[in-house]
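Let us practice reading a record.
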Amino acid sequence: MTEAQWGSDWLDKVADGSTAMSQRKLSSIETRGGGLEAVKTLAEQKGVHLLRLEDDKGNEVIAASLKPFDVVC
């Protein structure tokens, strides 16, 4: 898999419904072809919603879902 292709493969699984929601560490995204800006562009093209959050270990992650996220509080 090429560096540029990994993001498309990840978001394709979300867009086609084979994965309801998925997440990747932001630090991992930033080290791959195009970083977060490339992932944002791909998500817009595929109709996938992204959410930036911090997990229980303090890692910044990007969650991807076909359905929009709703912040509760």
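A brief commentary: The CA atoms of residues 18 and 30 lie 25 Å apart.
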